[in-house]
Design brief:
Elements (H helix, E strand, L loop, with lengths): L1 H16 L4 E9 L11 E23 L2 E91 L6 E8 L1
Parallel strand pairs: 1-2, 2-3
Antiparallel strand pairs: 3-4
């Protein structure tokens, strides 16, 4: 029994040593050379990216000249020169292109904004969504399903009988 308890204690201590730490800041020129190096780390603070950064979770401010990718979840403010790509996001995204593959709540401002399933506001040249509840303002606004208002040159809500309208489209 004593040996079993000792083996259990050793296994527990080894698993603690391999736990991914949390960080308050990260910098990245290119993802393989990012600081901190661990791609499993959680950032609680600021991430700065020159060309391409990739972390699973970020809570705070995300600044990039190039591309920032958050594989699991992002919460906070994101400003990206080229692309902000997240699996799930809450907050404000500002950039040339903002893409949230799944769940989104907040506001996107950019040339192209896309969400899989979102709540909030999209302001851009092109705004696209699977399901969206809120307000889309752009030249082209497109949603498979919309509970809200589209204001733009061309507005598309696929699940409506009259699915394409100029200037204003309302879906509920």
């Amino acid at each position: 029994m004593k040996k079993l308890l000792m083996a259990f204690a050793v296994l527990c201590s080894v698993s603690v040593l391999h736990a991914e730490p949390d960080y308050y800041a990260a910098f990245c020129a290119w993802a393989p050379g990012q600081i901190p190096m661990s791609s499993g780390s959680i950032i609680w603070g600021v991430r700065g990216t020159l060309f391409y950064g990739d972390y699973p979770r970020l809570n705070g401010v995300d600044l990039a000249i190039g591309v920032n990718r958050t594989r699991e979840s992002f919460n906070g403010l994101s400003v990206a020169g080229v692309l902000e790509l997240a699996n799930n996001a809450n907050g404000l995204q500002i950039g040339f292109a903002n893409v949230v593959e799944n769940e989104f709540a907040g506001m996107q401002v950019g040339a192209w904004n896309h969400v899989g399933h979102g709540y909030g506001t999209q302001w851009g040249i092109v705004n696209t969504a699977g399901y969206f509840a809120g307000f889309q303002l752009g030249l082209l606004n497109w949603a498979e399903d919309l509970d809200g208002v589209q204001l733009g040159l061309v507005n598309v809500i696929e699940d409506q009988t009259l699915c394409v309208l100029p200037f204003l489209n309302i879906g509920f």
